[in-house]
């Protein structure tokens, strides 16, 4: 298992659903780790790797970037922290960011639209 400056196996065991760092793409994790360094705020992983079965059981088609180990949802409830996280993600080259009320989604899926920021608000 690769070692990172800011992430440990425990960060992924407490995610929902629980997963392992071994489920995550190493290049994705290296970029995420660098973004965490730049942001200077904690990156709390709400969700990371999800199986296709999990996605389908929850009414999704199973094509999420989470199923490839190249996406995470990071807990975020404060605007200043949201800014620091998004700024850092962009600085390291992430181009797909989703903003929810209490989380930020980031993925590195080159099979989907690039240079997009979306929200989950209704």
TrEMBL record:
Keywords for the protein's UniProt record, in alphabetical order: Carboxypeptidase, Hydrolase, Protease
Residue ranges that the Swiss-Prot or TrEMBL entry lists as coiled coil: none
Superkingdom, natural source: Bacteria
Family annotation (SUPFAM superfamilies): Hedgehog/DD-peptidase
Pfam families with a match to the protein in the record: Peptidase_M15_3
Record-annotated membrane-spanning stretches: none
A GO molecular-function annotation: carboxypeptidase activity
Residue span, Peptidase M15A C-terminal domain: 25-107
Name this polypeptide is given: D-Ala-D-Ala carboxypeptidase family metallohydrolase
